[in-house]
């Protein structure tokens, strides 16, 4: 039997990760389970020899490379993934080899979230595409728009906006006490998405907030400090959204008042179509892919070697 699931991050302190999980949830035939993205090799004792789990894996990927390759029933679909230069233990992604590299190759073509991930995959000779973040595919019904939202911007920005508009709501993507309850977390993500969909404008410093606003058609401005923040690390997503240095925004706001609602620069419809076509292709491949994606013995040996490298 084929089961469907997704990865999420139970211990994350960032609601943006939950928005990505919500997008994955919206585009699966059904969700039979949600697995910790950092423990993909955990046993799945309820699955029989002929069962498979088609697992949609968006967002941060291979952060815990010693828990890779995945459990033998898993057929991963890597969609909008971000792979860092080093994993959580400081092991460079460039050292991925043997069964670990073979398992990644078995998941290809991999849909990369950003240019830097695509470049890292290219150095490993892994077939890949560049799609942006899966949060761009978030779906939400149309709702009436009113008010301004500020998401994780400094108090100075909030005060400056409130000098012109009193209907300002302040919120944060920070989670102080992450709940292990997946359904409750997805309910919170849905409520957050509704807030973004019903706003006239959103001002933020959060990438996932900006991408969610693009998905629901809300004008969004990404604020940043150019002297120490490199938003090109988000490429190509940095070009999809209106952006402005923090000091420039404050100077223009005080001189000219609130801007009128604008049209976001990205053609989100076209981006979504490409992304969802890639996702559909990935799901079909995973539904018939030979399992396990690498031999179990090879996977175990490779993980042990990875742990030894980590200890060194």
Percent in helix: 25-40%
How many DSSP H or I helices?
9
How far is the N terminus from the C terminus? 42 Å
- State Rg: 20 Å
Q: What tags apply to this protein structure?
A:
312 residues; alpha/beta; six-stranded parallel β-sheet; five-stranded parallel β-sheet; 11 strands; elongated
What does the model show?
- By secondary structure, the protein is of the alpha/beta class.
- The chain is 36% helix and 18% strand.
- It has 9 helices and 11 strands.
- The strands form 2 sheets. It has a 6-stranded parallel beta sheet, with helices on both faces.
- Helix 1 (15-26) runs parallel beside helix 6 (207-216).
Task: Set down the secondary structure blueprint.
Blueprint (H helix, E strand, L loop, with lengths): L1 E7 L6 H12 L6 E4 L15 E9 L13 E9 L15 H9 L3 E3 L2 H9 L4 E3 L17 E4 L3 H8 L5 E4 L10 H16 L3 E4 L2 H10 L3 E5 L17 E4 H11 L11 H21 L7 H16 L1
Parallel strand pairs: 1-2, 1-3, 3-4, 4-5, 5-6, 7-8, 7-9, 9-10, 10-11
Helix pairs in contact: 1-5, 1-6
Summarize the entry for a quick read.
The chain is built from nine helices and eleven strands.
